[in-house]
């Protein structure tokens, strides 16, 4: 009991001394121990890292879940997973459900009902792809960043507070030593008590406080230097996030392109269903002839020169972006998708859709 009382009294004295020292520094321009420039730079980098990382985390959360109410729920991160039975539908899945119900109501035999059912199926795919994007981003990007903020960053801030307290203790001891020397007529080795404290005692306190401050400085410095490792880890997280986005948008592009082709064969004009017009049929016939000519030209397995007839922006990693009127080398590989050819330009190669070129 006596030990606990002494400890509480010591803690209270320490808090009082720190508060007094902080007040003198703030309002009376008291002397304080300055940290070296390198250490100050590390502290500034840690503050900037925490600030930008929190903003980054918030923006990614908003991107993955635009609904602020859901983001405020305690189980937000548990819901950022692939779809489970009974889980909330996302917006694309809700759209798919509405279109499917409408299509069934109007009938699959009608052009409108048939189109609704086709679009509903694609929207359902997009909804699933979005769930996969959210799940991957949550596991590979959000959670690692959040663990850094809740773990490493909190530890750094905790040790910084301890360092600040140790620095106040050291400066308070230095202040008491200065006052003891002034009261003793600045006599080295004087033993005249000043407020119950001799110069020897004050110097001993300074040595102890300096040792504790130096030790805490090293601990905090090691943690601050670890920020670079955190940057490297978060770089991987951002790369994984971009990979997940790339996969999602590539799948979405492919699904919508397939849907567009599926819907383009039928038009509804003034209530009457008509297939493609004479002009469209002629254009399709010319297109088929052109593609047939390309297939025949590349059938020997060799390379040919081709001119780009439309701009094309690569969607997947193995594709090549080309521009109108560029002349490129094209060829086909065994087992390759018949809608694509391999293209090469200035040593860079990749797939492009066959309909974007004509053989020179």
Automatic annotation (TrEMBL):
Q: Which InterPro entries does the entry mention? A: AH/BAR_dom_sf, BAR_dom, SH3-like_dom_sf, SH3_domain
| UniProt domain BAR: residue ranges | 24-272
Membrane-spanning segments = none
Q: Which UniProt keywords apply?
A: SH3 domain
Start and end residues of each SH3 domain: 301-360
Keyword tRNA processing recorded: no
* CC per GO annotation: cytoplasm
UniProt keyword Ribosomal protein present: no
Q: Which Pfam families match?
A: BAR
**What is this protein called in UniProt?**
Endophilin-B1
């Amino acid at each position: 009991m006596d030990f606990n009382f002494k400890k509480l009294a010591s803690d209270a004295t320490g808090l009082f001394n720190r508060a007094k020292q902080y007040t003198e520094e703030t309002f009376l321009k008291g002397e304080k121990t300055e940290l070296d420039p390198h250490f100050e730079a590390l502290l500034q980098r840690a503050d900037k890292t925490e600030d930008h990382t929190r903003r980054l985390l918030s923006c990614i959360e908003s991107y993955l879940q635009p609904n602020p109410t859901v983001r405020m729920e305690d189980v937000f991160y548990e819901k950022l997973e692939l779809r489970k039975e009974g889980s909330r539908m996302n917006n694309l899945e809700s759209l798919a459900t509405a279109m499917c119900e409408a299509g069934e109501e109007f009938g699959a035999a009608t052009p409108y009902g048939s189109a609704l059912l086709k679009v509903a199926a694609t929207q359902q795919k997009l909804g699933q792809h979005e769930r996969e994007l959210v799940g991957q981003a949550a596991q590979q990007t959000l959670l690692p960043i959040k663990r850094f903020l809740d773990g490493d960053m909190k530890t750094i801030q905790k040790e910084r507070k301890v360092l600040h307290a140790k620095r106040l203790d050291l400066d308070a001891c230095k202040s008491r030593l200065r006052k003891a020397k002034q009261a003793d007529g600045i006599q080295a080795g004087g033993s005249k008590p000043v407020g119950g404290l001799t110069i020897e005692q004050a110097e001993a306190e300074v040595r102890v406080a300096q040792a504790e401050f130096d030790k805490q400085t090293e601990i905090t410095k090691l943690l601050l230097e670890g920020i670079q490792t955190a940057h490297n880890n978060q770089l991987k997280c951002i790369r994984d996030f971009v990979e997940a986005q790339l996969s999602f948008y590539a799948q979405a592009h492919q699904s919508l392109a397939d849907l567009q082709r599926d819907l383009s064969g039928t038009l509804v004009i003034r209530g009457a269903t008509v297939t493609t017009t004479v002009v469209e049929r002629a254009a399709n016939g010319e297109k088929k002839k052109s593609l047939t000519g390309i297939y025949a030209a590349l059938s020997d397995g060799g390379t040919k020169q081709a001119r780009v007839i439309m701009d094309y922006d690569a969607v997947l990693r193995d594709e090549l972006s080309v521009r109108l009127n560029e002349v490129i080398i094209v060829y086909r590989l065994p087992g390759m998708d018949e809608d694509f050819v391999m293209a090469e330009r200035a040593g860079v190669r990749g797939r492009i859709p066959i309909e974007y070129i004509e053989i020179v």
